Amino acid sequence: MAKAKSLYFCQNCGFESGKWMGQCPGCHEWNTFVEEPVAVRRGGGAAAAPKKERAKPVRLVEIEPGEASRISTGIRELDRVLGGGIVRGSLVLVGGDPGIGKSTLLLQVCRNLTASGRKILYISGEESLQQIRMRAERMGQFASSLLLLCETNLEDIRETIARHMPEMVVIDSIQTMYNENVSAAPGSVSQVRETTGALLQIAKGMDISIFIVGHVTKEGVVAGPRVLEHMVDTVLYFEGERNAVYRVLRSVKNRFGSTNEIGVFEMQSSGLAEVENPSEYMLSGKPQNASGSVVTCSMEGTRPILVEVQALVCRSSLAFPRRTAAGADLNRINLLMAVLEKRAGLPLSAYDAYINLAGGIRMNEPAVDLGIAAAVISSCRDCPVDEKMIFFGEVGLSGEVRAVSMAQQRVREAKKLGFETAVLPEVCRRTAEREEGIRVIGVSNVREVLGLISAGGVKRS
Predict the structure, then answer these.
(1) Do 212 and 204 touch, CB atoms closer than 8 A?
(2) Lowest CB count within 10 Å: 74, 190, 300, 359, which one?
(3) 222: which DSSP letter?
(4) How many CA atoms lie less than 13 Å away from 295 in the CB half-sphere?
């Protein structure tokens, strides 16, 4: 017999407590505890279960070295984010806003893998078999080795996987699955945690790669306890506006590869298409001879991406000027504007400022600081910047322009797209000058950037 009992769980980190608390002791967040019923089994039933042989420790030198076996998804952008392909026996969490394209991307992966003769199992708890078939028909032909299952019971799913032994399983979504041994509702903290733990045992025990789809909250994180992201091997996030055609796949955790790589996709009627040159895609439609428009470069893993920074600086009629940022950190924008006012003499405290990274992409690398500062200067002075000029570098509180990594790779990417001048930190100039065919200008502080835009950086007609 099981005795009903209620426990309180933190929705952010999964901390358990016998009573409600205002602040979680684990993650120190406020008002995150929810009450959920749990079933506590008496001690008599566990004695009858046979004991399995205990695992013995092994010396590190006795373990045979070997590389993780990877499976190519047939989508180069996804393979890059995963670190080279799908690792056998891995558990991958894919999160994103509703309608962003999570199920579409995984169904395309299933199509590519089944085309090479691999057996794939797609388990859906949200759509019927007919709905999946309608979505699959828009993508093209699927091989017969793709198996579909509409089920939410974890035990039935475990038996199906053990009976068919596929090479990859897709769970869509984790919030709809439930474990009969947990008396909480599907999607609750207890169910999500226990179900993910059971899927982790299946992936490691049967050497099957499992992709699970997770819904996100209004804050943009995967719904459920934070421990969910700690349990899986890889966490991928889909970013981008639902109404926009582009999608950015970003890795925030990866035990088998880099967490700095991103994949760029374009939403089409037949599914998600890869964007092989994101820089050219992000710069399409850039205005010509317009003040406040500057191109900067950010390194996403090993890939340099050029993006347009737009700034609109106008005199404010408010007691506290308005500051708005889209695609960049607002606190970083306020810091840069304070540096420009103190070190370059711009009266920005009396001006509203609106900063936007065109294309909707989000970048947090400090190397975009110089591009943002140049865009603010250009808009404040109403001086258009040469459209063949690119800016990148980190700006310090003293107004100095600090070094950034991979300067030569950034300059090489700018030259490929037809840029003629690169403005970068003075300490990086010698390295960047190795790239022929593009003019390199080194700057040491923001005052030099101000002088460059006011004099030499203006496009002459």
Answers:
(1) no
(2) 74
(3) B
(4) 30
Q: Which residues contact 427 (CB under 8 A, 6 or more apart)?
A: 402, 403, 442
What's the rounded Cα separation, in Å, for the pair 171 and 94?
10
> What architecture (CATH level 2) is domain 68-276?
3-Layer(aba) Sandwich (3.40)
Which residues make beta-bridge pairs with 150? 124
What is the distance between the alpha carbons of residues 115 and 112, in angstroms, rounded to a whole number?
A: 5
In 129-216, where do the E strands start and end? 146-150, 168-172, 209-215
Considering the domain delimited by 281-456, tell me its CATH architecture. Answer: 2-Layer Sandwich (3.30)
d(CA 429, CA 421): 12
Segment of 229-233, 235-239, 400-404 carrying the highest mean pLDDT: 400-404
- Which residue has tokens 């590519």? 112
Cα-based distances in Å from 426 to 412, 419, 442: 17, 19, 4
Rounded CA separation 423/390 (Å): 6
Integer Cα distance of 388 and 376 in angstroms: 18
From the CA atom positions of the chain, what is the Rg in Å? Answer: 26
**Angle at the Cα of 101 from the Cα atoms of 95 and 106, rounded to 5 degrees:** 80
Sheet containing strand 91-96, strands side by side: 146-150, 120-124, 168-172, 209-215, 91-96, 234-239, 246-254, 262-268, 271-274
Q: Which residues contact 318 (CB under 8 A, 6 or more apart)?
A: 352
- Residues 131-141: pLDDT tens digits? 999 888 888 88
Tokens of 134: 């309608």
Going by pLDDT thresholds of 50, 70 and 90, the confidence category of residue 451 is very high
Cα torsion 327, 332, 334, 339 to 10°: value is -130
Query: Cα–Cα distances in Å, from 444 out to 89, 440, 448?
Result: 50, 13, 7
Q: What is the DSSP string of 233-266?
A: SEEEEEES-TTSSEEEEEEEEETTS-SS-EEEEE
